[in-house]
Write a structure and sequence with these properties.
Layout lengths: L2 H34 L4 H17 L2 H15 L3 H4 L4 H37 L7 H34 L2 H4 L13 H29 L7 H42 L14 H109 L8 H53 L4 H48 L7 H92 L5
Helix pairs in contact: 1-2, 1-3, 1-6, 1-9, 2-5, 3-5, 5-6, 6-8, 6-9, 8-9, 10-11, 10-13, 11-12, 12-13
Length: 600
């Protein structure tokens, strides 16, 4: 409050309290003293004089109250009030709430000094009788309750003008800090004041009349006057009580009306110390809590709405990624199926290669046996050279058989060469297959690392097979050359057999050379046999590895199928999340629209 309003409030409160005293209490008190003491007209004037002197003399107490109230209200000046701490502000507000109760001290001091002073001034002019003195003693019982209650309600009404100012209205207070003067106590003391004045005044007069303690003149008029003054006091008292209750109730009702319309911006001023005042604290605490909850709900609903939109955006991207992943999984599955088919084809080729190498091994064994036979035959020819002349025909037949056998050997060697070339072509295909498998394993990423190792091993085996095939081919080529040479030699032998007799020495030498050549052929056949055995083992390993690769590719295909199913499920799950985010965003928007009903 500014300085002008502070002075205005102090004057209005002081004048209002003194009007209650001078207009209501003093006339009632004087009338009671005059009637109850059966004062004469002259002495009645002295009673009025004494009361007037005492009234003006006792104004020192209202002056002190005026100055203290002004000092207290000066602290509520906005410029000064804002510089205070929260505890200091709460202390000022608490002092204002306690003022109506503390004002009773000023009232008691003023009347406790004023009544004896009025009696003292009055009795300076004459010596009172017991009947004239007794009303002064009974006067506090008549006046104090009514005047105390009326002062309390008027002070509370005036101070409420300060408590509803913006500086003090929203200032929080703990309910335990505020002294409580409940509605029950207010009604009780109000009714007690009314009955106290009525019973004291009329009861004393009736008792005096009955006991003839005093002789009241014109009793009917006297009782009517007393009843009129008592009625005025009761009316003023109850009006103040109702006005105080009504002002507080209107404040609460207006606030409830605002709350019903969702307005949380205002709080209820604490203007009394009764249940309504204490209820205002609870209501303000409730409003503050609703404000916080509403602010949190608004903030969280905005966050939920924003997060739901972000999640929806991300789930859309995730859905696209899942679709791409599903497509990649399908492509990978198709690639694995093709690779499995290729591996199965490789396994079939490896099995066929194994069969061919076994057949080649058997042919080499047969060739070895033939060469051994040739070698034995050459030895026999060498030992029986001397008998060659007599057995020419038999020798010619033997040479013809030898020529046929050499042709067979040559055919076998050529077949062996063809078989080895087939093995070489298979090795090339294995190399290409391992290269394709490595490429597919690289495309498969982490899932194809194991298969990449297998493909590398197959490549190595293919290279070894190709190397061994070249060596065998070289050996077979030599064997073929040797076989051709042998066949040519036998053919020449047959042509020149008629000259055996003349060329025995030459024939013996040729037979020796043939024997050496057969020994070499045996060595070559032995090497070919060993290489073919190695080739057979390699073919068996290739067949075993390709079978394992086929099993691995089938398991990989199953895994990819499982991944594809999981991707489809995850895609459906992400779609559900997308729908849920959309629903959550709608609910957050609805919640925000609902909570916007409250104005904070």
């Amino acid at each position: 409050m500014n300085e002008a309003k502070i002075k205005s409030l102090c004057w209005r409160l002081t004048i209002g309290l003194e009007l209650l005293t001078a207009v209501l209490a003093v006339p009632t008190a004087v009338l009671f003293i005059v009637i109850a003491g059966v004062y004469s007209f002259e002495r009645s004037l002295l009673v009025v004089l004494g009361a007037t002197i005492a009234l003006f003399t006792s104004y020192i107490v209202p002056t002190i109250r005026f100055l203290r109230l002004k000092k207290l209200l000066t602290n509520t000046n906005p410029d000064f009030f804002q510089s205070l701490s929260l505890e200091e502000k709460q202390k000022i507000k608490l002092t204002l709430l306690k003022f109506p109760k503390h004002n009773l001290g000023y009232f008691l001091t003023q009347w406790s000094f004023g009544i004896p002073l009025a009696a003292f001034v009055t009795f300076q002019f004459f010596t009172p009788t017991l009947a004239e003195y007794l009303p002064y003693i009974i006067l506090p019982i008549l006046i104090y309750p009514v005047l105390g209650v009326s002062h309390f309600f008027l002070s509370e009404l005036m101070i409420s003008e300060v408590l509803i100012t913006p500086e003090l209205k929203d200032l929080p207070l703990n309910a335990d800090m505020i002294p409580k003067v409940g509605i029950y106590a207010r009604i009780f003391f109000t009714m007690s004041a009314v009955f106290s004045m009525t019973l004291t005044a009329l009861g004393y007069l009736l008792l005096a009349e009955v006991t003839k303690f005093v002789q009241i003149q014109n009793a009917e008029v006297t009782l009517v006057l007393m009843a009129a003054f008592i009625t005025i006091n009761i009316f003023v008292l109850t009006s103040l009580f109702v006005k105080a209750m009504r002002f507080n109730t209107i404040q609460m009702a207006n606030r409830y009306k605002s709350l019903a319309s969702g307005d949380l911006s205002e709080s209820v001023p604490i203007i009394s110390t009764d249940e309504l005042g204490h209820g205002s604290i609870s209501l303000n605490s409730f409003i503050t809590s609703i404000r916080k909850i509403t602010s949190v709900v608004i903030e969280e609903s905005d966050k939920v709405n924003s997060d739901a939109k972000v999640i929806a955006t991300q789930t859309q991207g995730l859905t696209q990624a899942m679709m791409e992943q599903a497509s990649s999984s399908e492509e990978m599955s198709a690639g694995v199926e093709e690779m499995s088919a290729s591996i199965r084809s490789t396994a079939f080729g490896a099995k066929k290669q194994n069969d061919i190498t076994k057949e080649a091994k058997n042919l080499v064994i047969d060739m070895e046996s033939s060469i051994v036979s040739i070698h034995d035959l050459m030895n026999l020819t060498e030992t029986e050279t001397k008998q060659m002349e007599g057995e020419t025909k038999l020798g010619q037949s033997a040479l013809h058989s030898t020529l046929v056998a050499m042709s067979d050997i040559e055919s076998s060697v050529e077949n062996t060469s063809n078989v080895i070339q087939v093995i070489g072509e298979i090795s090339d295909k294995i190399g290409l297959l391992s290269l394709n498998a490595s490429i597919e394993a690289a495309r498969a990423g982490d899932a194809g690392r194991g298969f990449a190792v297998v493909a590398s091993e197959i490549s190595k085996l293919g290279e070894q097979t190709l190397s061994n095939t070249k060596r065998i081919l070289e050996a077979v080529s030599k064997a073929s050359s040797s076989t051709k040479s042998g066949r040519l030699a036998v053919s020449n032998t047959e042509k020149t057999f008629t000259q055996i007799g003349k060329s025995v020495h030459t024939t013996i030498e040729l037979i020796k050379q043939s024997s050496e050549m057969t020994k070499q052929q045996l060595e070559l056949v032995k090497h070919v046999k060993e290489n073919i055995e190695k080739l057979t083992m390699s073919a068996m390993e290739i067949e075993q590895n390709t079978n394992e690769q086929a099993s691995t590719s089938e398991e990989l295909a199953k895994s990819i199928a499982t991944i594809t199913e999981g991707t489809e499920y995850l895609n459906q799950f992400v779609s559900d999340i997308d729908k849920l985010c959309s629903a959550l965003s709608n609910k957050a928007s609805n919640l925000r629209q609902t909570i916007d009903f409250f104005k904070i």
